[in-house]
TrEMBL record:
Keyword DNA-binding assigned: no
Protein name: Ion channel
Keyword tags: Ion channel, Ion transport, Membrane, Transmembrane, Transmembrane helix, Transport
Molecular function, one GO term: outward rectifier potassium channel activity
Organism: Ancylostoma caninum
Alphabetized PANTHER family for the sequence: POTASSIUM CHANNEL DOMAIN-CONTAINING PROTEIN (PTHR11003:SF307), POTASSIUM CHANNEL, SUBFAMILY K (PTHR11003)
Residues passing through the membrane, by range: 21-39, 45-67
Main location: membrane
Domain Potassium channel: 1-70
GO biological process entries: stabilization of membrane potential
Superkingdom to which the source organism belongs: Eukaryota
Pfam families with a match to the protein in the record: Ion_trans_2
Amino acid sequence: MWISLSAFIVRLWEYEWSYFSAFYFFFTSLTTIGLGDVVTRTPNFIIFNLAMTLIGLSVVGLCLAIVQAKVRLVFDRLIRSIDSQYRIRQIDPDVATMTLIPDEKEGIKR
């Protein structure tokens, strides 16, 4: 979304660029690829580009931090589940078997 908005604004400023060129320019800037095949010609735009890129990098960093936090939460839950199963088996190795398979003496109660 940020790249699309930035490309639309730049398209108004750099009249020689197509929307695709502006989008490509900001995409390569925000992903820090920066190939250099599309460059600005207006000196005032360089300052604007710097501001838009800094804001965009902050947004990208925030999105990556949110994804990282969600992935960490999933792995923490998984580790707690594995740890609890491990502790049950450390107490008595047959606990898992006893809780899942009834003893022959008990049978299935109806």
